[in-house]
Amino acid sequence: MSEYFKHYSFDKWIYKSSSSSTNVDLVETVSKNDYKTNIVLYTYMQTAGKGQIGRKWYSGAYKNLTFSLQFDLNSILAHNQFNLNMICSLALTEVLAQIFPLMADKLTIKWPNDIYYSNKKLAGILIQNTIQGNKIQKMIFGLGLNVNELDFPKDLPNPISLAQITGTSHNLQSLFRNLLSTLTLILKQLDQMTKSELLSLYHSKMYLKDTLSKFEITETGESLQANLRGVTDHGQLLLENEQGIRKFNFREIRYC
Ligand code: BTN
Question: Which ranges of the chain would DSSP assign to H, the alpha helix?
Answer without folding.
Answer: 22-33, 81-99, 162-166, 172-191, 195-205
